[in-house]
Amino acid sequence: MVTLDGEDFLTVEEAARLLGVKRETLYAYVSRGILKSYRQGMKRQRLYRRAEVEALVRLDRGGAPDIPPAESWIRD
Q1: Alpha helix (H) ranges present in 1-76?
Q2: Alpha carbon of 37 to those of 11, 22, 42, 44, 69: distances in Å?
Q3: What number of other Cβ atoms are within 10 A of residue 19's Cβ?
Q4: Neighbours of 53 (CB within 10 A)
Q5: Domain 2-61 falls under CATH 1.10.1660.10
Q6: d(C-alpha 73, C-alpha 75), whole Å
Q7: What is the pTM of this model?
Q8: Rounded distance, CA 11 to CA 32, Å?
Q9: Which of 29, 54, 65, 68 fits as disulfide partner to 72, beta carbons 3.0 to 4.6 Å?
Q10: CA terminus-to-terminus distance, the chain
Q11: pLDDT value at position 14?
Q12: How confident is the model over 55-66, as pLDDT tens digits?
């Protein structure tokens, strides 16, 4: 973990582990606008704001609502 200006950032490996996904999936989240990455200095290393990653984890844990099968609510 890296702290910049009092804010915690995670490395690619840390963010992927916290989300329970592969690095490639993390990159897909960024490319689709689900998560934002931040460049550290002049290096190519990307960081992820810890608060944003944790918010995404909380969203994922909510899961999809239970929807009954279509047969149960479609009438003839």
Answers
A1: 12-19, 23-31, 50-62
A2: 10, 15, 14, 11, 38
A3: 19
A4: 20
A5: yes
A6: 6
A7: 0.70
A8: 19
A9: 68
A10: 58
A11: 95
A12: 888 876 555 556
Please tell me the distance from the alpha carbon of residue 23 to that of residue 7, in angstroms, as a whole number: 22
DSSP state of 4: E
Q: Which amino acid is at 26?
A: L
Rounded to whole angstroms, the Cα distance separating 50 from 3 reads 10
Which pLDDT score is estimated for 10? 94
Phi, psi torsion values for 63, nearest 5 degrees = 65, 170
Q: How confident is the model at residue 2 (pLDDT cuts 50, 70, 90)?
A: confident
Let me know: does 9 contact 3? Beta carbons within 8 Å. yes
Strand partners, 38: 47
